[in-house]
Design a protein that fits this description.
The protein is mostly helical. It has two domains: about 80 residues, Orthogonal Bundle (Rna Polymerase Sigma Factor, Chain: A); about 80 residues, Arc Repressor Mutant, subunit A (Orthogonal Bundle), CATH 1.10.10.10. It is built from seven helices and no strands. α3 crosses α6.
Length: about 170
């Protein structure tokens, strides 16, 4: 039988991608992402013993990650962002790689301009979570999630068009 610590480490290993995605959405600076990653792990560890429904671990991890990130942002309202291209780009796929990274950079930059709740909702939406799952994680009604997704899509379209035109 696994100890509580072994269970937690196994879960963390299996779901650490969620932590990285949430960090990428909320923090532009690598150091801030690393600090927040540690804080999320701490908050997950603190709340793990009281986790009632072990069947919805992914939802729990999203909720804790998002809430921890929003709390950190509220404490520290300063954000610096310096974009850099990946260090290794295959010469055969340079144009395709650059286009992909530029589009991803634009999308992330557009998402940064959303409010904290809409950032969370769009992250979960892009992760192909259902409206019901998003509602459970964020703590909103299913219909409110649908409305916010539609509004956020429109805002993102406008932001992406604005960024594409170089403004």
């Amino acid at each position: 039988m696994k100890s509580l610590q072994e269970e937690f480490l196994e879960i963390l290993t299996n779901y650490q991608g969620i932590l990285h995605k949430v960090n990428l959405i909320y923090f532009r600076n690598k150091t801030e992402r690393e600090d927040n990653f540690q804080e999320i792990i701490y908050q997950l560890w603190k709340s793990y013993p009281g986790l009632q429904n072990k069947n919805s671990i992914g939802s729990w991890i999203y909720a804790v990650s998002i809430n921890t990130s929003i709390s950190k942002l509220k404490k520290e309202r300063r954000i610096e962002y310096r974009e850099k291209l990946p260090e290794s780009i295959d010469k055969l796929d340079v144009i395709e790689e650059l286009t992909f990274h530029e589009n991803l950079r634009r999308l992330i930059k557009a998402i940064y301009n959303l409010n904290e709740i809409d950032k969370s909702i769009m992250l979960l939406y892009l992760e192909e979570k259902s409206y019901d799952e998003i509602a459970e994680i964020i703590g909103l009604s299913r219909s409110n999630v649908g409305v916010r997704i539609n509004r956020a899509k429109e805002t993102l379209k406008q932001n992406l068009n604005h960024l594409k035109n170089g403004n």
